[in-house]
Amino acid sequence: MKKEINHLKISPLSERQLLQMIASKDKQQAEEAFKEFTNRHTNRLYELCHNQTEGYPKDHKKKLAYSIFGSLVLYLFENAETLLKVIKGKRSSLSMQAAIFSHLEEHVTILFKDMLKDQWLDKEVYLSLPPKELRKIIDQSVYQDHICQLDELLALPKKDAAFRKDMKVFKKAFKTFKPKDRKFLIMMAVPILEKGKQHPEIMASVCQEFGITEETARQRNFRLTNRLKTSFEKEKKKN
């Protein structure tokens, strides 16, 4: 990167100058400045992400940290103008860095929460967390649903060999669906289990989440449920 006179001293481009370049409409300039910024602060950015994974078992921590890191650098690239406002009035490099990372530290929790919903909602990572950790990263309503589901699972006849076998077959069939379809079925689980009973609040939530009409949601629910039943039966015959 070029050097410039900054506060009467010859020094590398400041964080403000890099962010201004990232926010510019010059694609090449923005990409070069972004690369310089992330290279300069990679360790610190990753540390913010790694800190969010406390409480997770080792087999999940690294995957989650890398996922958050990807979300964080993307946020940085797309929100350079926001970060410029954060450092407004700051004169030294250290004060600018302190303001930037204070903002990112607060925002990374939001990014992590959104990432878990979008990428990890139906994965085993949720089940690996203690309740107090779950409460920190997901909505209270989602947390309560999770606890209720766990209570229901614990009440099931786990010692029944046939039941355990069916559950393994079901999980195998369920994993063949696309992540968005799995998420849709999970959100519609209560209407599926209580056939004929209306749940307008759940339907409204599903429609809002997927940006679809109620009629489209009903058709999708019917189609996916039938596919799941068919997949389950096929897998069951194999076993």
Distance, first to last CA? 61 Å
Low-confidence stretches: 1-10
Largest sheet: 2 strands, antiparallel
Order of helices and strands: EEHHHHHHHHHHHH
Tally of contiguous helical segments: 12
Radius of gyration (Å): 24 Å
Beta-strand content estimate? under 5%
Shape: elongated
Mean pLDDT: 75
The percentage helix is: over 70%
SS-derived structural category: mainly alpha
Lateral arrangement of strands in the main beta sheet:
1-2
Number of strands: 2
Compact summary:
This protein has twelve helices and two strands; from the N terminus they run E-E-H-H-H-H-H-H-H-H-H-H-H-H.
Keywords:
mainly alpha; two-stranded antiparallel ribbon; disordered N terminus; 74% helix
